[in-house]
Amino acid sequence: MNVKKFITFEGGDGAGKSVQIQKLYHRLKQEHGPVYVTREPGGTALGETLRTMILRTPDLAPKSLCALFIAARHHHWAQVIAPALAQGFWVLCDRFIHSTFVYQGGIGGLDFEFIQLLHEQLEAYIIPGLTFVLQSVPTESYARCQRRDSSQKNYLDQRNFSIHCAVEKAYNDLSLGNIVRIAPGNLKETEESVWKSFQHYLLKECSE
Ligand SMILES: Nc1ncnc2c1ncn2[C@@H]1O[C@H](COP(=O)(O)OP(=O)(O)O)[C@@H](O)[C@H]1O
Ligand SMILES: Cc1cn([C@H]2C[C@H](O)[C@@H](COP(=O)(O)OP(=O)(O)O)O2)c(=O)[nH]c1=O
Q1: Does 13 show up as a binding residue in the annotation?
Q2: Model's pTM, two decimal places?
Q3: Where, in this chain's numbering, is ATP bound (predicted)?
Q4: Which is more confidently placed, 76 or 203?
Q5: Which of 30, 64, 90, 167 could pair with 35 as two cysteines, CB 3.0-4.6 Å apart?
């Protein structure tokens, strides 16, 4: 399977992934062919059900939570992502394997070897062609999560500031696959200026 067109977006909660994915979706579609946008947790009926369940269940044991994410990932890959790639689509995915290493590993305390092994056992150790890690200033991403509409907030959005800092660090320390880090130049980097950085890498990657 050619994963070159499989692009994932990673970063802390409120980093601005969804905004940039929408911009990239329109740009790719106009100039580089069909695009499919998906997300984790989610992406399939099973994944979306799991998303609702996980986001409402704060007391899941770390290994159980990890196994659920990975089982859903295998299903997502087999049912949705691989067929779309086989049909020539670009696939843009909001979070994927890196999130598990950061949240269940770096933050949740599970060994990286365990997480990798479980992915391999469940046939979900899939490394995307390109992974954008959207870095953010924790004070800013934290403030954005606090501002979220209360109907959209889940217990994960209530995480304290130190968790935002730890997530940022875990993404910085992570080395897996082809990662491009988009760093904000300053605290008040606008959506448009972040998008300019994306386009720079996008043009480079698509022309290769
Ligand atoms: N660079 C930015 N500057 C200011 N606000 C932003 C920026 N990027 C995103 N936002 C806003 O922050 C909030 C979270 O963005 P979103 O794309 O949903 O983040 P994520 O998908 O990473 O959780 C949204 O209200 C969005 O409009
Ligand atoms: C895919 C994945 C997500 N997560 C977490 C990260 C997020 O906090 C949450 C999904 O929430 P989501 O709303 O997608 O994230 P965001 O706030 O960035 O828009 O699930 C894991 O812990 N492990 C995983 O493998």
Answers
A1: yes
A2: 0.93
A3: 11-18
A4: 76
A5: 90
136 token code pair = 């953010």
Q: Is the pLDDT of residue 186 over 60?
A: no
Is the CB of 101 within 6 Å of ligand 2? no
Q: Please give the pLDDT value at position 199.
A: 80
Q: Which residues pair with 6 in a beta bridge?
A: 91
The pair of three-digit structure tokens given for residue 37, joined into one six-digit string:
């946008």
Is 1 within a domain?
no
Q: What type of residue sits at position 17?
A: K
Contact, 82 vs 44, CB < 8 A? no
* Residue nearest (by alpha carbon) to ligand 1 atom 9: 16
* Residue bearing the CA closest to ligand 1, atom 17: 16
User: Of 166, 193, 170, whose CA–CA distance to 182 is shortest?
Assistant: 193
Residue 51 placed within a domain: yes
| Ligand closest to the CA atom of residue 195 | 1
> Domain tally for the chain?
1
| Atom 25, ligand 2: residue with shortest CA distance | 100
In the numeric block, the tokens 């290769």 are attached to 208
Is cis: bond before 58, omega within 30 of 0? no
Q: Which residue range(s) make up the domain with 140?
A: 6-207
